[in-house]
Each structure stands twice: as C-alpha cells, then as structure tokens.
Amino acid sequence: MARTKDKSSSPKEPGRIKQMWQVFQMTRRYDPSSQWLMLLGFLAPVLVGLGLALWLGDGNGLTIALWVIAGVLAGILVALVILGRRAERAAYSQIDGQPGAVGAVLRSGLRGGWVGNEMPIAVNGKTQDAVYRAVGRGGVALISEGPATRTKRMLNDEQRKVARVLPNVPITLITVGHEEGSVELHRLPATLRKTKRTLTKPEVLAVSNRLNSLQTPLPIPKGIDPLKVRPQRGKMR
Q: What pLDDT shows up at residue 227?
C-alpha cells in the first residue's frame, strides 16, 4: 500500500501541450516579437490554402475542405518551427555573457556533423576567459569566450598547437561576443555550419579522436552549469 501511495503521490511530468505552452510563455517573455511572427507564420499558409481552395476547388466542397485543412496544418508546422528557433535564441540570451555559455551551446546546439564539448581546452584563471574547440566537416574551430583583446593570444596559442599536430586540417578562429567582428552566442551554430566542408565524416572522427587524446582535461569555468541550460529543441518539435 505504501508503494502505491508513493507512486500516486509522485509528481507527473507535464504533457506535451503543457510543455509547448511553457516554452511559448518563456519565449514570449524574452522575445515579445516571437508571438507576432508565429501568428504571421500560421496565417500565411492558411491564406494560401484558402486561395488555392477557391481557385482549384471548382465548387467541390471536399476539395475546398482538403485545401483549407492542408493550409491549417502547414500553418501550425511553420508556427512551431518559428517557436523552436525563437525559443532557442531566448534560451541562449539568458546565458549570454556568462562563463561556460559557449560550452553549453557546443554541448547541445550543434548540428550539421559538428562535434563539440562543454569542457574548454584553455582557461584564464583570473578572468575566466576560455577557449573551446569543435570539430566538423569544416575542420577545427577554436572558439573564444571573453573580450577579443584578452582572448586573441589564447586563440593564437591554441591554433599553433592544433596546426603542429594536424598541419593539413583547416582551422577557423571564432570570438563569441558583441564586439565588432565577433559572433553573437545564438549565431554560433549557424556560423559553424557555414564553414566550407573539407573533411569527410571518417576524417572528422579521426581528427576529433586525435585531438582528444592529446588534450589535458580542464575544469568548466565557474558560472553556469551547461547541463542545466540546454535549449529544449526536442520538446519543441
């Protein structure tokens, strides 16, 4: 009886609809324009579907209904896609500027064959500036977290280390921040995907394993916990 009571009293996880509503509320709070973009994204396919229904329906009620339904479904899909991207951006805005933010993005926000880790490869213990590494079809990306004037030397040092071990692999240097020439945190995944593809998938794995075997583990910079700030993309699809 006690076990039954414990199971019944344990809190239930919110349903998918409730999760979506929570994501929408969070996104709207940090990005008020998102709700209007979602509305526009929903209405546009609906109006297109209605127009096609009137044009191609030829008075057939079933054909008109099918076109309208298709427009509504397409509108819902577009609205959800907009919500997903805006929610991801809102989540990143909450950690932007905090130590470990780049690590959180590399751990949970990379696509297109890129592999990253929340652990930095170099850290300045006084300023908490850090350099992270990602490996993908575009080669090796070294990403600094902190003002460019302070992290430039760290980036150059890590670039020389990688070039010494992998002389034929392209290396991209990225500074995350809001300064001129820097990349904003929420644009980091897209910036990596835009790099020119020069490596095959087996080569990406080989390069990643080679660098990891030479890397001495470093502590995550004090600040946020990357594992607790992952954008909930999976719940928004």
A: 46
**pLDDT value of position 172:** 92
Domain map (residue ranges) of the chain: 2-95, 101-229
Q: Give one DSSP letter per residue of the chain, joined into a string.
A: -HHHHHHHHSPPPPPHHHHHHHHHHHHHHH-THHHHHHHHHHHHHHHHHHHHHHHH-TT-HHHHHHHHHHHHHHHHHHHHHHHHHHHHHHHHHHHTTSTTHHHHHHHHS--TT-EE-SS-SEE-TTT--EEEEEEETTEEEEEEES-HHHHHHHHHHHHHHHHHH-TTS-EEEEEESSSTT-B-GGGHHHHHHTSPP---HHHHHHHHHHHHHHPPP-PPPSS--GGG----HHHH-
Residue 226: predicted pLDDT: 46
Residues of the chain with pLDDT under 70: 1-14, 109, 215-237
Query: What's the pLDDT tens digit per position in 153-193?
Result: 999 999 999 999 999 899 999 999 888 888 888 888 888 98
Contacts of 73 (CB under 8 A, 6+ apart): none
The answer to whether 140 and 131 have CB atoms below 8 angstroms apart is no
Question: Among positive and negative, which fits the CA dihedral 186, 187, 193, 199?
Answer: negative
120 phi and psi, to 5 degrees? -75, 160
Asked if residue 75 lies in contact with residue 46, where contact means CB atoms within 8 angstroms, the answer is yes
How many other C-beta atoms are found inside a 10 Å radius of the C-beta of residue 78?
19
